[in-house]
UniProtKB/TrEMBL annotation:
It comes from Banduia mediterranea. This is Lipoprotein. It comes from the Bacteria.
Length: 438
């Protein structure tokens, strides 16, 4: 009977995933909020209710474009590298999973221009133009064309593309002070269109690309399985799990089927340059979730550096989220986390009213807010924590990307995997205040 019930739940999960990926309602962009231009839609940030979906990161800003390339035409994007930590373009399929990507160091500059993300190039260089071709086809099995992203069209013939920027330099706008790439369409007859005529020919869709967790009643069914504890799927000893793909996450989290060798294909609108870990928490085990670990070396770029520093990771962040709504509540990225002399940190997550007095930077302790509504579907004590590692260097062996199979995160990440535990306020107060932390 239990096996049959679990199989029913599996069917529900799969159905919910399909509805969430394909059946999400898409929202027209408010013209008052749209950025200048006819091609890009956005920005996607956690501050806007419309775009706080698909677990955004506070250190990043996204813009989307959805369009149809006419037969025989060639689309080219022309832009300037932003003054920022990272930039990329990612294409997505009908299920909103990534199909191809190209990021900053992989994009060659125009003649007599320079790529500030590459070693030895000054980050404040003025000549920083590039061009990027967008081909409406699957990525090749062999050699790729230079400065090209392959964007396999959806079932309706449309191409979905995201442009991302992480951590623009201080004092600059979300585009890193260089604006968004312009669109250029070379038609089959050789004529070239720019601006609004190009957008018209591309039939640009001015809707926000949104995701969904599927039907709420299905989510409630898998979350409230009668043979499970009320704290399910959280555990009294919190456990990190590497994220492989959306189906595996659902199967492992809600059915306990966590074995095998799942494909690391990403999730809804995920960034292929990131490796992700997930942790399910519940306040009934303790009002505070405390995370202690060692911070990998990352480029400290926000205040401006002459060169892009070599580092173990390009970017690191930790975020608290509502599981069902896919909204993010709070995030910290590497530069925002106080570290001690060994590059170790303490981060505590709690509701605002439970925030310990010593959970502040002056004490060397960082704080994240626990979602006030829990999972956003009637379970106020729930929380989903996401850890991101971006672009590890080849000689750094302890990134999320080093995990190979379910359950081996601690083995590979060692001290760089945050150690989670529940505490109450009086226990946390005993940690005191370390004013020497930076």
């Amino acid at each position: 009977m239990l096996v049959e019930a679990r199989l029913l739940v599996l069917v529900m999960v799969v159905g919910s995933l399909m509805l969430g990926a394909c059946g999400a309602q898409e929202t027209p962009i408010d013209p008052a909020e749209a950025i200048e231009g006819c091609f890009w839609v956005g920005p996607y940030t956690l501050e806007r209710e419309q775009t706080n979906t698909a677990f955004p990161d506070s250190g990043a800003t996204y813009w989307s474009a959805r369009f149809t390339v006419p037969d025989g035409a060639k689309l080219r994007l022309r832009g300037r590298y932003p003054h920022a930590r990272y930039m990329s373009f990612v294409s997505y399929n009908s299920l909103k999973s990534p199909t191809d990507s190209i990021y900053d160091t992989q994009i060659s500059p125009e003649t007599d221009h320079f790529n500030p993300f590459r070693p030895g190039v000054r980050r404040d260089v003025e000549s920083r133009a590039y061009g990027l071709d967008v081909l409406p086809q699957s990525p090749p099995d062999g050699a790729r064309a230079e400065n090209t992203i392959y964007a396999d069209p959806r079932f309706d013939g449309q191409v979905s593309l995201f442009y991302r920027i992480y951590v623009p330099d201080q004092g600059l706008d979300a585009t890193g002070g260089t604006g968004l790439p312009d669109v250029e369409l070379v038609q089959a007859n050789g004529s070239v269109l720019h601006g609004q005529p190009a957008c018209d020919a591309l039939q640009v869709d001015r809707h926000l690309l949104v995701s969904s967790s599927g039907r709420r009643w299905v989510y409630t069914m898998v979350r409230e399985q009668p043979w499970r504890a009320e704290t399910f799927p959280a555990q009294s000893r919190p456990e990190w799990r590497a994220f492989y793909n959306t189906f595996y996450f659902q199967r492992c989290t809600y059915l306990g089927w966590c074995g095998g060798q799942p494909e690391r294909s990403g999730g809804v609108f995920s960034n292929p340059q990131n490796g992700y870990l997930t942790l399910m928490a519940n306040r009934r085990f303790g009002p505070l979730l405390v995370l202690e670990g060692r911070m990998p070396d990352t480029p400290r770029t926000r205040s401006g550096t002459k060169l892009m520093p070599a580092a173990q990771l390009r970017y690191w962040s930790l975020c608290t989220n509502e599981t069902f709504t896919q909204k993010v509540t709070d995030c910290l990225y590497d530069e925002q986390v106080p570290l001690d002399q060994t590059d170790s940190y303490i981060i505590v997550a709690s509701r605002a009213q439970d925030r310990p007095d010593n959970a502040r930077r002056e004490c060397g302790i960082a704080w994240l807010e626990w979602p006030a509504v829990g999972d956003g579907a009637g379970h106020p004590d729930d929380m989903l924590v996401l850890l991101r590692n971006m672009l590890p260097s080849p000689d750094f062996e302890h990134a999320v990307q080093a995990t190979r199979a379910p359950g081996d995160a601690r083995e590979h990440m060692q001290a760089y995997l945050p150690e989670p535990r529940y505490m109450n306020g009086s226990e946390f107060a005993l940690l005191g205040c370390d004013a020497e932390s930076q």
